[in-house]
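Below: protein 1.
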Amino acid sequence: MSTPAGVLRFLHVIENLKRTKRTGWVDNKIGDAESISDHMHRMGVLALLINDKSLDRTKCIKMAIVHDLAESIAGDITPHSGVSKEEKFRLEKEGMDEVVRHLDSSPEALEIRSLWTEYEEATTEEALYVKDLDKFEMIVQAFEYEKRHNMKLDTFYASTEGKFRHPTVRKWVEELYREREQLHADLK
C-alpha cells in the first residue's frame, strides 16, 4: 500500500493531466482544447460500454484510465512533435517509472505500470481494444470540434483510417462517419 504522502505526491503529479491541453488540438488552434485528463475520462466511460465476453471489461476500464498517466510527466507527444517513437517511449517509460516511485512502488503502482506496459505493447486483446478506443475517442472529439467551430479536421480521421480492429468500435466509427457526412452536407 502506498503511504499517504506517496498518494499525495502522485495526485500532485497527475494534476498536470487536468491542466495539459492535448497537443493535436492546440496545434490546430482549438481554443477550448480538451485536456489529457478529459480524454482519459471519456475513454474510461467508453470502456464501460464493452459488450464482448471475450474481453476482460474491468481490465479495459483500468487500462483506459491509466493509458496516458505517463504524460503527466512526459507531456502529450504527437507524431508531429518531432520526437521519434523510440524517444517518445523512453520519455513516457521514465514518466511511468516516476509515477510508480511516487506511489512507493506499491502493488497498486505496479498494477498501474503493468496495465500501461500492456497497453504500450499492444499484444493482448484488451490492449488492442483500448487502442481502438483511444483512436475512436480522438475522432469523436474532432467531430465535436468540427460541429462547434464550423471547421474540418480531416487529418485526424485520415490518421485512423483502416486502423480499427474491434467490430463494435468499427460500427461506432461507421456511425460517426455518417453523422459527419450529414454535418458537412448541411454546412454546404
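Below: protein 2.
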Amino acid sequence: MASTSSTPPNQWKTWDVFISFRGADTRYNILSHLSKALKDKQIKAFTDEELRKGEEISSELSKIIRESSISIVIFSENYADSSWCLDELVQILKCKEKSGQIVLPVFYKVDPTEVQKLTGNFRKAFAIAMHGEKGTSQKVDNWKRALKEVSNLSGWDLQEIKYESILVEEIANDVLKKFSYMPKSDDSYDRKLIGIKSRVEKVEWLLKDKQVVGIWGMGGVGKTTIALEVLHRNKNQFTGHYFAENVRETMKNESSRSVRTEIIRQLLGDKHVDGLNDHVFKRLKSMKVLLIFDDVEDRNHLKDLAGDCDLYGEGSRIIITSRDSLGLSEEDRYEVEKLSDSQGLELFSLHAFEQNRPKEEYKELSNKATNYAGGNPLALKILGSHLFNMHIEEWESELEKLKVEPLEKIQAVLKTSYDGLGDKDKDIFLDIACFFKGQNKDEVERILEALVSFQKVEYLA
C-alpha cells in the first residue's frame, strides 16, 4: 500500500528471492516468465536447477535459502512428488520461523485446498515422495507440516487471476513493494531525503515510551516519508508490521471491518482469518507489532482499524500521520517542521540541477523559487522538476507566472489541507489569506485574539 523503491536494498542478503519449483511443471512457463519479471525490476532471484544433484539438498543450497530475503514457492500438480522440493520447503519454513523470512506461495494449476489438505492429484504426487523415503517417518511429518503451514500463507492462485501474465506481474510488483518495507542494513539515508535523519530520530524518541505516536503537519511536508523511514529502520524489532496508506480515501470506499480483517491477515500471515475471535485474539496478543496508519482524517477510523492497544502484545506501537493533531497531546505527537532555507535550497537543487547546490548563474533565481515553496518538501521537488533543463529566460518567465497562478500540482497538494479544515477554520484561513497577507505574525495573532475575545463577550451578552 505504500510507495515502492526501484531497487531493493539487498546489501545484507546474497539473494533477494529464492524460487522453489517443480521443473517439469513450470520450467518453460511461469518460472521463466517470473524470473524475467523479477530481473527487469533489478531483483536478484535464484532458481536451484544447477544445484539439484544427489538425493538431498546440499549445504550450499541451504545457505542460499537462508541468505535470501524472500522465498517464492510455486505449488504445481507434481510439486509434492519431489523429495527435493519438499526438503526445500522444510528449509524455507525454518527460515520463516527463525529469521522472519517472507514466504509467498503461488498455486499454479493446482487447487489450494488440495495442497492444504493433501487431497486429489496433489495427494497422489505426495504418495510418490513418501514411497521413495527410506528413512524415519519424521521427515514425512516435516514435509506434511511444511506443506500445511506454507500453503496457508497469503499468496496467489492462478484460478482466481486467470491470466498468467497478470499473475506474474502481480507477484513481481508485490515483491518489489515488500522490499520497500524492509529494514535498512546501515545508518545511511537516501541523499535526496534532505533533513530526514533528525525528523526520524524525533519520532523514534517518542516511540520509546509512547504506544500511539502522531506525525502531523500540512500536506507535502513529508509525514509519509518519515513514517516509511521509521518503518524501514525499526521493522526488525517487531514480530509483525503493517503500513496502511491513504486511510482517508480508503475509508470512503471500504468498510472498516474489511480493512481491519486484511490488517490482521497480513500480521498473522494467514489469509483464512475472517475477523476477531478468541483464537485470533490470542495470536495477536502474542505479537509485538508496529502499525502505521497514513493520512488519517478521523480518529474514530483509528479505533475501528487498529482496535485498542491491548489487543496486541507488550511493546507494540501505533504511528498515525495526519494533517490534524487528532486530539493527541503535544507529548504524543511530532509536528513536522518545514525545511530550513539551506535545506530547501539543497532539495530544490537536487531536482532542478541533479546536484546539491544551484549552478552559479541560477543562484538568485533558485533562491526565489525556494522562497516561493516555503520549505515544503513536495512543493520544492515539484518546482525543481518543473524547471529542470530550462534556460534562464524560461526560469524568469515561469517564476513570474507563479506570482499570478501557482503550479497545478502544488495547488492540489495545498488544497487537500484546506479541504480537510472545518467550516470555521476555513473562514479563519481565508480571512488571514485575504486581509493579513504580508503582515507581521505577532500583530495578526493579537488582532485575532482580540476578535475571539470580542465574540465571546458578544455571545455572553
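The first helix runs from residue 23 to 26.
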